Amino acid sequence: MQDPTIPECPQELPEEIYWADVPEFAEGEPRVRIAVSAFGGGTVGKAYAGQTWAYAVLIDTDKSPEWVITGDDLRSGAMPATHEEMVRTLATFLSADGEHVAGGACEGECSERICNQYDEPQREFLEANRERFALFSA
């Protein structure tokens, strides 16, 4: 059953969904949650190799919860990984993308995947939360 306080996710999250809260980096930051789900099935706690994962990042502001970043391009490759490990892997990627944005690389003419993959509000979110994701992924 879907939590009625969370809006419907624009990304299909198949099978069993694993939720993780990203701890605050500084006092008063909004709640950030990451959801991951393995395509083709997957039991939370078991490790899967060669798996494709769907993900969604939710920010809970004073106004209301909002889906910020979603996708289905996360893969565990040859190394088996659990849902929790894939959340931390995603956090590593999000932190790195935030560092790219924070360095000013997306200003002007940038052909990097990062600059083209995210819209302005998403880039602002990544820049603001890059350290938070880095600490969480460690």
Automatic annotation (TrEMBL):
Organismal lineage: Bacteria, Bacillati, Actinomycetota, Actinomycetes, Glycomycetales
Protein name as it appears in the record: Uncharacterized protein
Organism superkingdom: Bacteria
